# Entry
Amino acid sequence: MRKIILTTESGADLPRDLAEKHGVQVVPMHVIMEAIDYLDGSLPVKDIFEYYDRTKKIPSTSATNAHEYHEFFSKIRNDSPDCIIIHIGYTSKASSSFQNAMIAAEDIEDLFLIDALNVTGGLTAIVMDAVTLLEKNPTIEPAHFIEKIESKVPKSRLAFVPGSLEFLRAGGRVSNIAYLGGALLKIKPCIELIEGKLISTKKYRGKMSAVAEQLMRDYLNNYNIDREQLYFIYSVGLDDSIKERMDAIAKKTGFKNITWIQAGAMISTHAGPGGFGIAGLES
# Structure
């Protein structure tokens, strides 16, 4: 049986230990700061926050380009000539990365692309579900495997609350007036992936400790999440007491496995410090 190799992008925030353990290959996206182009994963997240504190500007980000994808996929093909590559990609509705992968894939055989219509933990949830399925069924037919992965795409649910509005304002995602009003009222927007697009669905008020619990309640009320696995996403700066509290709530509500994911440089550039999110797959 031909080997299936799974790939994804750094915007999945797939923890490095999980990627290495399960053989998932990750192609980096880009973060540009002070005219230097960094590969996502090579730039410590704290450097982004320190840069913002110093300049009140955020770095820019860019997708993996078609040439980089071609080199990435070609290396996998050269290393494993008989393999089948299945790429589970960052939502095409928020980045050109998936379109660039499609361009690169035109002359590479046995390479299949799946638009996850999700980012960070929502993308990781799909990737890790694919990993589990493949490890349980190593002889699965590729066409059936791809069908199974694609069936999980609309079931992946991600909700995230940034730690503050400052990074959203600096990136032009909220106006100065909205920022001032939100800051005065201590309002935090909930960002969800709806049909692949990042949408502000609700506004919470108060400290992150209370907001995180409310987000969890709303998330579980809105979605019938499979209790086998839950992902919590955090950006650097989230208080440890919040992590402990969310672990306790997840266990109390029946989740068997809980994995914490740190938002990498790509995601943190948009979310800022101290953010919290939840991701999982609906039953």
Observations:
- Residues 156-281 form a domain with the Hypothetical Protein Tm841; Chain: A;domain 3 fold (CATH 3.30.1180.10).
